Amino acid sequence: MTKKPSSRRKKDISAQSTDRTLPANSADSILHQDNPANATIDVPAVEVPELTEQEQRDRLHLERKVERAFFEAGKALAELRDRRLYRSTHSTFEEYCKDRFGYNRSRSYQLIDAAVVVDNLHKCPQIVDILPTAEGQVRPLTKLETQQQQQVWQAAVEKAGGKVPTGRIVKDVVQQIMERTRVPNTYQIGEVCQILAKDNPELRGKGGCWCIVTYVGEFSCIVRTWDGEVTVGVQHLKSYNYLPAECQQMQQIYDRINRVYSSGLEESVQRFLESLGKLKRAYLTGLEEKVLSVLETEIKINTKN
User: Fold this and answer.
1) 23, 70, 175, 218: which has the highest count of C-beta atoms within 10 A?
2) What spans are recorded as compositionally biased (Basic residues) (predicted)?
């Protein structure tokens, strides 16, 4: 009968094999170490190779792609909107952006407006080498006119020590300029004015519309347009200087337009109302009066039914 090797033998073999894996000086140093926690371990230095010229070019190219990501997104969204490439699946651009990209209306237009600003900054040779790298750096500029955007960005770059400024720095510079250029508010409640949208994205679609002042603030007014109320800075308003009787007549026209608009008639009707919302006179022509009267009659019939 063959005898099994004793467990003592196994332990001896294991111990011998373990001992052979440790250098003698390592074992001695561990045994004689008063405090193992203070032991030092020598780690050989690893030499990091320098980037080749091709790697440097690749790095710069990829960095530029990251920096331009928000700009390219804004340009793409603007084209999708302008060409209505969403129309096969969605009735509105806002619904499309929400379903496809998870962007709400505000975020979509932030990117679009930022792309417009960056395009404008590209045209200024003094700042072409230091351009925005994030949408937040551009957002404070979207409310400014084209030339002001370039001036503010240059000032912000200087304030940042010649580097790309943070959104906070840009916002501070914008605030300083707005405080210096603000015009006192001389408008009056009931006054009829024209909205000058200029480069203000918040007034998109309102340019050229007439409005009636309903509230006068320090540097802005709340006004009524054909499709609702909006807050407008005084720099974006121009008075028609109508007589009191003409202002009263425009108020009556507004009331009639707003009633029809609020009834929710089809899109073609809204286009007609929009055209009335851009009148540059204090009266309706005979044909405009007839069409508006027909629409008012239609509303009454629908209300009765």
Assistant:
1) 70
2) 1-11
